[in-house]
Design brief:
Largest sheet: 2 strands, antiparallel
GO molecular function: protein phosphatase binding; protein phosphatase regulator activity
Distance between the termini: 30 Å
Strand content: under 5%
Protein name: Protein phosphatase 6, regulatory subunit 2a
Helix content: 55-70%
Family: Belongs to the SAPS family.
Length: about 675
Amino acid sequence: MFWKFDLNNTSHIDQLLDREGVTLRELMEEEDVLQECKAQNRKLLLFLSKDHCMQELVTLITEEPPADLEEKTRFKFPNIACELLTSDVALINDKLGGDESLLEKLYHFLEQEPPLNPLLASFFSKTIGNLIARKTDQVISFLRKKHNFISLVLNHIDASAMMDLLLRLISCVEPAPLRMEVLNWLNEERLIQRLTELMHTGRDEERQSNASQTLCDIIRLSRDQANQLSEVTEPDPLLAVLESQENVAELLKNMFEGERTEASVVNGTQVLLTLLESRRSGLEGLMDLYSQGCERSYTVNSSILCAIEPHLKDFQQLLLNPPTRSAILTTVGVLEQPLGSARLHVARLVASLLQTCDLSICQEICRLNTMDLLLDLFFKYSWNNFLHLQVELCVASILNHSAHADLQNPGLQNHEERPLFQHCRLVQRILDAWEENDKNQAEGGRRRGNMGHLTRIANTVVQNLEKGLAHSQMNDLIKELPEDCRGRWESFVGETLRETNRRNTVDLVSTHNLHSSSEDDDMESPFPNDLSIQQAFSDYQIQQMTANFVDQFGFNDEEFSEHDENINAAFDRIAEINFNIDANAAAFEACCKERIQQFDDCEEEEDIWDEKEINYATQIKSRSRYSTWMICLRKYNLLWTASFGDTEVSSSSSWGGPPQEGGEGPQDTSWSSFTEFQPFIV
């Protein structure tokens, strides 16, 4: 090969290093300086680890470059300097982590007045984070000597890089005893309490948002690490403070004290949701809820619920009087009073609280008629599927929790179901909304965006009436409905809902065909956020993976093997295919005659060097007859059947005629027979 004659070539980096008086900037101009550094180029590493070079590298990532430089190159050298310092090379790590003057220079970056340059802050955070992971003892010891370290970090919490630095301290320290020392140190510095104070309504939104995200990440990291540790250790002090009733109460006080802004409500509620969250959320959580009832994969700390309960009335008030928002233009028109993130997060919180199955919390939600308000919003904002999912979760939780509570304490029967069916008029609302939607569609209007979730809510009610743990109590509630409402409900369940379920549970491919068919437009919503297709697709996704899944899906480990004997693995089963064609023979033959000439194996060979016009037929003649058949088959979308042993897959004819047995029909001896089809490799 061509490179075998140049095995002893010297890189340009080495040539520069051999030159006297070479500067760091000259080396950083080279495109392969990072590659050579990570490749452990000894000459380069010795040069970079010199005191003056390390000082310059740290200066580049902590001091603003001159403002008169061109913007696209202004941060070129700081970026390269950061990559060199975090290249995870032992010599550089040792030099940076072992030299206190360099650490002091780094630390001085935090002592600047806010706001920090976000790009330089990211360089600083990445460099310190790498040292925390690689030179843990030295760096932690250095930072613990700095009594204002946490204060300075929180002072710059508006920069997301500072949030990342805090998370590095919590998650990247090893071994476990040293990590516990760091957690205790952070707890002594009152990290959680300080972050909670930043959630006050008077703080700027950027600080609130980053403080909220930091608290959420600390909760998840602490829980994950506690689950991963096999041996029993002392509890995480930060998580203990986060889950304490005092801290949750302080968080809620900061959210509702003074002017209630959407930012404070949203950011504070996100922390509460994280404290309450299960391991799965969204549709997966909904599937778990349907299948497991009130059983959860974790236990919510009772102190969290005790702190939240007195403030449920405040969240109720947010549903009634949310922070003011201006009108917005949507794809379905102008929305004068948007739902808003605050009310959406309240709906999420109510759904999470109901899923805890805490009796006191659920009774308070019923007393406040919170579900009635959420159902009002469900039907008012018919295109907000985020809200629809939360209301659906609430209804499912109430029905499942009621059944669970009835078994545990028969004296509390129907304490949640009765308000749902009587005061909230759930059944009547379902029927009225369905009839109104049908009327709207009959007049040429669109199918409403909440109909998919309404279908699922109706199915949840029916399933609990038929085979739920408290089906007898629920049937009694249905019997208490007015007679005309009971009749409408029975007709709806037996006819309308049954037909809707039949349409929504068809095979995924058939659903797609129905959606694209102009004859069946009335069966599908014109908007993709409707659940009629989503439900079929989610059902398709959650099918259990059987032992022969790989074979059915068409992939096999042997297909990716490099052994020569497996080169035909992808085509081994083609010989088993039998095609039976049944179509309008006359139309098919006319198509073929229109496209190509009849094949004649006895015709004289042509001189390939003769100048002549290249046309489509000429190209077709030089190709396999298989390609010819494919052209004709694609045009007329003929009925075909592929047989793999005992398995048969069929597609329907475009002419709408019924399939005929045996594939009998007019045949022409001039055509190839698919029964003679042989394995091939393109």
